[in-house]
Structures are given as C-alpha cells and as structure tokens.
Write a structure and sequence with these properties.
The protein is an alpha+beta fold. 31% of the residues lie in helices and 13% in strands. The chain has one domain (15-113). Strands 1-2-3 form a three-stranded antiparallel β-sheet.
Length: 114
C-alpha cells in the first residue's frame, strides 16, 4: 500500500505538487526528470492520496473513498486532474471542501453555486 501526504511544515500543504511529481517524475519547471521509469499513473497517485492515506492512519473503514457510511471528506477542484496537461496540475485550485459531509470552505464561485 502506498500512502501519500504532504510534508508540512517543511513543504507547503498542497498535494498537487506531489501529484505532479509522482506522474511526471520532473521538477516543477519541467527541466529535469528523476527516475522517470518510476512514474505512477494519475489514478495510482490519487489512490495514494486518498485510500492509501486513509490506510496509513488506520481509517480505511471510514475514509479514503466516496462510499455510503464513510466520512464524505471531499474537495471540488477547478480542473479535472485525470485529463489536464501535467503542468496544469500545479495550477490546481480548491473551489470547495467538505469534511464529514459538511461544507467547511467554498470560494466565491462555489459558494454561489450552493
């Protein structure tokens, strides 16, 4: 089981940098690659950030996927991480956040859509 997370406070709390690195194995400028044969698919990297992270905290029976009875921790993004060009992953913005099914953050656009 592979679990991803951020290394806050050493690194900013943004999983999008880690996702980009996992799928491209490149630095953010795209000028250097590191072990490109070890790149993950986007699905594998997203799994590591969701179900893998839940497993790592012994919470896989209530977190990590959208399933009835689970906590419903959800983010809404401004782009589809499965289809955007890899450099666009780094520009991803969170539009809304739900924790345990309750809205805890919504930017202006997301708040207006509620």
């Amino acid at each position: 089981m592979l679990a991803f997370g951020t290394d806050y406070p050493v690194e900013p709390v943004t999983p999008f940098r880690g996702l980009y690195a996992a799928v491209t194995r490149a630095n953010e400028a795209g000028t250097k690659t590191y072990f490109p044969k070890d790149a993950l698919t986007r699905e594998q990297a997203l799994y590591a950030y969701t179900q893998g992270a839940a497993y790592a905290e012994f919470a896989e029976k209530r977190k990590g996927k959208l399933t009835p009875g689970y906590d419903a921790d959800v983010i809404v993004l401004d782009r589809n991480l499965l289809t955007v060009a890899a450099p666009e992953i780094l520009k991803t913005q969170v539009k809304a956040t739900m924790v345990a099914g309750k809205m805890v953050y919504a930017d202006g656009d997301a708040a207006a859509a509620r």
